């Protein structure tokens, strides 16, 4: 049996696929795996701001090959997968999660000003007003604008190596990246600050599915679904299905400022300790001046329960004003506005 595995043609995507295939080979030594890398629209177009490229910019070409049976399974960064998949496709498996947090990387121009290559800055709060921070994510820019209104946010595109080079050479003081990608490519030493909700000076909720890998198959391919169970991480899959339900219900995508955070926590009920899923979510206006936040904690035992939890929290946020924020953003998008990180 030979399984054709599709992935993006980038160093990070290929590294992630290599990890997944390694785990599958250990579980199924009799199966051969072929990697088919594809250059997708999001990789080819290096200049258009990501929100202007729409949904599916990282996935649609791969999914077309999946439906046409040129591929058997696709390895995605789950945060790149639209929450509504094309007809005939299914998210069959979510693997173990790498660090889901966003992080700060400072330009090396600041290291040169101190002895022994040490950076003069340790956190975003140390940057002066007017400092330039790069990110391709309006979610990151909008949330950070709430805490650091004096900073200037500018688009930065490219793979991780390219963005690190741009940070060092093209006028940025810092850039914001996902910890997962840096760690998977052995760039962890460039991380200066973590920005999760519990870190001092952080307060940033991450993207839906960030740090996790999603394996997409044809909806009717039961054999492939069974094969992939060997690499499924159930707690991660449940958490990510709840996160994706928040975004799907709010009709958001990677081009709108929706942040989430999930954690499995122990709670005592009637003397019994139970493990429950805590889900936090936030919707922020592009300028960071308006925000709606919410939280829920529930016992989750199935994907359906997880999706219901995310849907209920999203509906609560919508009633609190999140829907108005998103409607305003969508009006701007329809008129050609609100396409750039700089609009935050």
From TrEMBL:
A single cellular component GO annotation: cytoplasm
Any GO molecular function: hydroxymethylbilane synthase activity
UniProt record, GO biological process: heme biosynthetic process
Key words, A-Z: Heme biosynthesis, Porphyrin biosynthesis, Transferase
InterPro entries found in the cross-reference section: HemC, Porphobilin_deaminase_cofac_BS, Porphobilin_deaminase_N, Porphobilinogen_deaminase_C, Porphobilinogen_deaminase_C_sf
Documented EC number(s): 2.5.1.61
Keyword Transferase on entry: yes
Cofactor: dipyrromethane
Porphobilinogen deaminase C-terminal domain segment(s): 238-318
Pfam entry (one): Porphobil_deam
Reactions performed catalytically: 4 porphobilinogen + H2O = hydroxymethylbilane + 4 NH4(+)
Functional pathway: Porphyrin-containing compound metabolism; protoporphyrin-IX biosynthesis; coproporphyrinogen-III from 5-aminolevulinate: step 2/4
Domain Porphobilinogen deaminase N-terminal: from-to ranges: 3-225
Function recorded in the entry: Tetrapolymerization of the monopyrrole PBG into the hydroxymethylbilane pre-uroporphyrinogen in several discrete steps.
NCBIfam families given in the database record: hemC (TIGR00212)
Annotated family: Belongs to the HMBS family.
Listed name of the protein: Porphobilinogen deaminase
Taxonomic lineage: Eukaryota, Fungi, Dikarya, Ascomycota, Pezizomycotina
């Amino acid at each position: 049996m030979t399984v054709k595995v599709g992935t993006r043609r980038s160093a990070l995507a290929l590294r992630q696929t290599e990890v997944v295939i390694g785990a599958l080979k250990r579980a199924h030594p009799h199966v051969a795996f072929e990697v088919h890398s594809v250059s997708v629209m999001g990789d080819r177009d290096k200049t258009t701001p990501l929100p202007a490229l729409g949904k599916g910019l990282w996935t649609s070409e791969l999914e077309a090959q999946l439906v046409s049976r040129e591929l058997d399974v696709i390895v995605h960064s789950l945060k790149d997968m639209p929450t509504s998949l094309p007809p005939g496709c299914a998210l069959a498996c979510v693997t173990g999660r790498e660090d889901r947090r966003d992080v700060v990387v400072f330009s090396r121009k600041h290291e040169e000003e101190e002895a022994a290559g040490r950076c003069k800055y340790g956190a975003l709060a140390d940057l002066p007003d007017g400092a330039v921070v790069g990110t391709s994510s309006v979610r990151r820019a909008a949330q950070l604008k709430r805490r650091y209104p004096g900073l200037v946010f500018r688009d930065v595109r490219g793979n991780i190596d390219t963005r690190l080079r741009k940070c060092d050479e093209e006028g940025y003081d810092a850039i914001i990246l996902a910890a997962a990608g840096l760690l998977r490519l052995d760039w962890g030493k460039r991380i200066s600050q973590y920005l999760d909700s519990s870190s001092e000076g952080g307060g940033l909720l991450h993207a839906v599915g960030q740090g996790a890998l999603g394996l997409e198959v044809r909806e009717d391919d039961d054999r492939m679904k069974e094969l992939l169970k060997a690499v499924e991480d159930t707690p991660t899959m449940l958490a990510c299905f709840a996160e994706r339900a928040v975004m799907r219900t709010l009709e958001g995508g990677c081009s709108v400022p929706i942040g989430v955070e999930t954690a499995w926590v122990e709670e005592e009920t009637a003397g019994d300790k139970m493990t429950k899923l805590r889900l936090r979510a936030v919707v922020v206006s592009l300028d960071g001046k308006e925000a709606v936040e919410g939280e829920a904690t529930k016992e989750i035992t199935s994907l359906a329960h997880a999706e219901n939890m995310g849907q209920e929290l999203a509906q609560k946020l919508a009633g609190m004003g999140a829907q108005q924020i998103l409607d305003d953003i969508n009006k701007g998008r329809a008129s050609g506005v609100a396409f750039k990180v700089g609009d935050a």
